[in-house]
Amino acid sequence: MKVTINKVHQFVDQEVTIGAWLANKRSSGKIAFLQLRDGTGFMQGVVVKADVDETIFQQAKSLTQESSLYVTGKIVEDSRSSFGFEMQVKHIELIQEATDYPITPKNHGTEFLMDHRHLWLRSKKQHAIMKIRNEIIQATYRFFEQENFVKIDPPILTGTAAEETTELFHTKYFEEEAYLSQSGQLYMEAAAMALGRVFSFGPTFRAEKSKTRRHLIEFWMIEPEMAFTTHEESLEIQENYVQFIAESVLTNCSLELNTLERNLEMLQKIKAPFPRITYDEAIELLKQKGFTDIEWGEDFGAPHETAIAESFDKPIFITHYPKDIKAFYMKPDPDREDVVLCADLIAPEGYGEIIGGSARIDDLSLLKQRYMEHELIGDAYEWYLELRKYGSVPHAGFGLGLERTVAWISGVDHVRETIPFPRLLNRLYP
């Protein structure tokens, strides 16, 4: 019977066959230990010389790293391993012998590993990160399904910028100018006016010449938009969503978290409600922490976000940023026109902003005024104005960056490890 590693617990004391690759091996005189992987997980296969034909034992000892094979044997419980099971191998069928596999068990430099990303993905650590990424994706769909959101796919090619930045990838769209999307948000607002609660999940692009551990050129965003929703209600959705994905990973990825040696206590603290401070309070906190040069009206960088997060043991909302450093569509605070009803959610442990959100301007005349202030002239945004012209309602939304969230939940240092094939400032290969 052919099975996969993640199902072997159902076949204890039974003989099965697994299609696998040899991740590693070691031998101890009359026993060969094969570290097997099949995509669903990792498991040890034990070949005892006294229990198999001599040809099988010699074959086991001569297998090379990343060779593909079918292994047949009995599944037994193994309390010494974190996986809990192993195979007592009786037969090996070699499919393809790999020679000179470039990524050996020794340490390799980051650039070498990035050049071999197509192979580096096979490692136990990278496998664990990808499984956690997948769990966060699956949890995202489960959460928004139970909250009655509809999945909508905004375009990747657009004629406008969502946040008027010059950091766009430009392309020709036949006879027109076009850009790779930096956010689906404006289109999601249109969808929310049709379907109430919507979310998108897709790739976004930023031509930002940054080399920090938090930045990618191509990354994935989850962007919900909600009609008839206040800023406060949006914050509650955000914290419930983040709690939901953290709990899902804790429940379904315990083996992967163990592989990554993640501090589970930190993840167990991710419970709503999250603490909240205003931008004004954040400025004062930073000054107390020694950032004496920070002035009101400046945006926060990575060192600022890390310093703020150090005062809390779970994610922290920073609300009410100055209007002049936020996007044109954000709704001003009715009690204070120089700040907007927005929030950034800062992850603990130095992982920075994982969510940005706000209430959106729903008044047509005010949005026109903001257009003028930001010099958004022409027909490109006309359709966006019409959302306020025909049945405008209070609405809010946010965007969560998948890779930063995976990095934080997994406890890895750099976002380049949280996406299968990262696109970085100087990397388009493989």
TrEMBL record:
UniProt-listed InterPro entries: Aa-tRNA-synt_II, aa-tRNA-synth_II, aa-tRNA-synth_II/BPL/LPL, Asn-tRNA-ligase, Asp/Asn-tRNA-synth_IIb, NA-bd_OB-fold, NA-bd_OB_tRNA
PROSITE patterns recorded: AA_TRNA_LIGASE_II
GO biological process, one term: asparaginyl-tRNA aminoacylation
Keywords: Aminoacyl-tRNA synthetase, ATP-binding, Cytoplasm, Ligase, Nucleotide-binding, Protein biosynthesis
Domain Aminoacyl-transfer RNA synthetases class-II family profile: 130-430
Subcellular location: Cytoplasm
Any single Pfam family the record assigns to this protein: tRNA_anti-codon
Broadest EC class assigned to this enzyme: ligase
Molecular-function GO terms, alphabetical: asparagine-tRNA ligase activity; ATP binding; catalytic activity, acting on a protein; nucleic acid binding; transferase activity
Catalytic activity: tRNA(Asn) + L-asparagine + ATP = L-asparaginyl-tRNA(Asn) + AMP + diphosphate + H(+)
UniProt KW DNA-binding keyword: no
Coiled-coil positions: none
Stored Gene3D superfamilies: Bira Bifunctional Protein, Domain 2, Nucleic acid-binding proteins
One Gene Ontology CC term in the entry: cytoplasm
HAMAP family on file: Asn_tRNA_synth
Homology family: Belongs to the class-II aminoacyl-tRNA synthetase family.
Classification via NCBIfam families: asnS, PRK03932.1, PRK05159.1
Subunit details: Homodimer.
Descriptive protein name: Asparagine--tRNA ligase
Organism: Gracilibacillus dipsosauri
Gene that encodes the chain: asnC
